[in-house]
Description:
The protein is mostly helical. 66% of the residues lie in helices and 0% in strands.
Amino acid sequence: MDYGTLRGAFALLILALFIIIVVWSYSKKRKSEFDSAANSIFEDDVNNPIEESNKQETNNNV
């Protein structure tokens, strides 16, 4: 097996992996999971400790 054949086999492997990932990501079974992940940014977390620690106090007595 020479270097050119090895490069060709590697290119076919990468192409096959790309096609598998595209088919997996656009499959109908995964749509609901991806939609919920995409919409999770819009959900309000009432008990989010990160937002509470980032709030700054304002001085209204100026």
